[in-house]
């Protein structure tokens, strides 16, 4: 089983606060907190902006069901 870091883990690894990341991604800190806690489903555009703000790119992969 491969460890997959959460959004909050990635933010911590990049030494960013929620406030800083939210500002760079153009969303509110409250929205970022809700996304990290899985209290809301983010829009694809929000995920792209969050990823880019941390220096990542978002990739989506479709796989056949097993």
- CATH architecture call: Orthogonal Bundle
Q: Which term fits the overall shape? A: globular
Percentage of residues in strands: under 5%
What is the H/E string?
HHHH
By CATH, the topology is 434 Repressor (Amino-terminal Domain)
* Gap from first CA to last CA: 17 Å
CATH class: Mainly Alpha
> Could you give me the name of the CATH homologous superfamily?
lambda repressor-like DNA-binding domains
Structural class estimated from helices and strands: mainly alpha
The number of helical segments is: 4
Number of domains: 1
* Rg over alpha carbons: 13 Å
Number of E-type strands: 0
Poorly predicted runs:
none
Largest sheet: none
Mean pLDDT: 95
Instruction: Estimate percent helicity.
Output: 40-55%
Characterization of this structure:
- By secondary structure, the chain is mostly helical.
- The protein is 50% helix and 0% strand.
- Helix 2 (18-25) crosses helix 3 (29-36) and helix 2 packs across helix 4 (44-53).
- It starts with 6 loop residues before the first helix and ends in a 13-residue tail after the last helix.
- The model has no long low-confidence stretch (mean pLDDT 95).
Structure at a glance:
This protein has 66 residues and is mainly alpha-helical.
Set down the secondary structure blueprint:
Layout: H1 7-13, H2 18-25, H3 29-36, H4 44-53
């Amino acid at each position: 089983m491969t460890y997959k870091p959460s959004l909050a883990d990635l933010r911590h690894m990049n030494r960013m606060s929620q406030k800083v990341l939210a500002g760079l991604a153009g969303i509110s800190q409250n929205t970022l907190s809700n996304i990290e806690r899985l209290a809301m489903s983010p829009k694809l555009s929000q995920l792209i902006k969050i990823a880019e703000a941390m220096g990542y790119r978002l990739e989506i992969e479709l796989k056949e069901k097993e």
